[in-house]
């Protein structure tokens, strides 16, 4: 079974492309949503985050106060390092358990911070979604109730695309005039060829 990493900075179009890949019948692990789930229900993560940031980091209903954590970590390199150190190992463990239940020839793992979290060793191939910075900022602003400054804060905590590109096996260009489905199908065709040669 081939494990494929799917990455790209905030607003590059990962979720959109992951949905297309899922529709084509391939399993996709969405790390942002899994991280959110784990942060809300894993008692050890909850204890660590409460120790670091106080009990108000969780809301009365027991779920994380996302706005509060985002405001703290995207302005504080030490804090983000600590949070990553708590959350990322739990996501990796959960992903490995999920992998062992999959039966398709290849599966995908979607994460904005695959390289930043040093997860590349988990994958046979990595696909980068590359979209111009300005397009990403505009897309996130129109998708979320957020500001340009807040999007830039997150981008500043992510590796530049040029470095990510040099570490990736495939690139999907997802600017407004790029033909995305054609690129996805071409990569899947290549992965099928690789898989059938291995089988
Ligand atoms: C800070 C939190 C609460 C903000 O929640 P929110 O719903 O606003 O954002 P969401 O989780 O959907 O992430 C949106 C995007 O923000 C960026 N982002 C999120 N976490 C990080 C991080 N640790 N480092 C850099 N960028 C990040 C990514 O581009 C991501 O796709 C949340 O992102 C979080 O808990 N982050 C820490 C855990 C983590 O690293 N998650 C990433 C997947 S493993
Ligand atoms: N090719 C495209 N053309 C126009 N809009 C697009 C395209 N791809 C994605 N979008 C839109 O851009 C926004 C960001 O895309 P998406 O949510 O898939 O990005 P993401 O990389 O998953 O973002 P995040 O890192 O914040 O989770 C969404 O509103 C999506 O509908």
Automatic annotation (TrEMBL):
Catalyses which reaction(s): 3'-dephospho-CoA + ATP = ADP + CoA + H(+)
Pfam families the UniProt entry points to: CoaE (PF01121)
Recorded superkingdom: Bacteria
Keywords: ATP-binding, Coenzyme A biosynthesis, Cytoplasm, Kinase, Nucleotide-binding, Transferase
UniProt subcellular location: Cytoplasm
Pathway: Cofactor biosynthesis; coenzyme A biosynthesis; CoA from (R)-pantothenate: step 5/5
Molecular function, one GO term: ATP binding
HAMAP family: Dephospho_CoA_kinase
Enzyme class: transferase
Single biological process term from Gene Ontology: coenzyme A biosynthetic process
Alphabetized PROSITE patterns for the sequence: DPCK
Primary localization class, coarse: cytoplasm
Binding-site residues for ATP, renumbered to this chain: 11-16
EC number: 2.7.1.24
Protein name per the record: Dephospho-CoA kinase
Entry similarity comment: Belongs to the CoaE family.
């Amino acid at each position: 079974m081939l494990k494929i990493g799917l990455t790209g900075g905030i607003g590059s179009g990962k979720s959109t492309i992951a949905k297309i890949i899922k529709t084509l019948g391939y399993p996709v692990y969405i790390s942002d949503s899994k991280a959110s789930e784990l942060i809300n229900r894993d008692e050890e993560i909850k204890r660590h985050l409460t120790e670091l940031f106080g009990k108000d980091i969780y809301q009365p209903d027991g779920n994380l106060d996302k706005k509060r954590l985002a405001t703290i970590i995207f302005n504080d390199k030490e804090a983000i390092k600590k949070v990553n150190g708590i959350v990322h190992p739990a996501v990796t463990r959960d992903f490995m358990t999920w992998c062992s239940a999959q039966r398709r020839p290849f599966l995908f793992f979607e994460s904005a911070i695959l390289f930043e979290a040093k997860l590349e060793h988990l994958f046979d191939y990595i696909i980068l979604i590359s979209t111009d910075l300005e397009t990403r900022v505009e897309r996130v602003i129109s998708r979320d109730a957020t500001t340009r400054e807040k999007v830039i804060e997150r981008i500043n905590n992510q590796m530049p695309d040029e470095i990510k590109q040099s570490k990736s096996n495939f690139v999907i260009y997802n600017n407004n005039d790029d033909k995305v489905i054609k690129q996805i199908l071409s990569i899947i065709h290549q992965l099928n060829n690789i898989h059938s040669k291995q089988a």
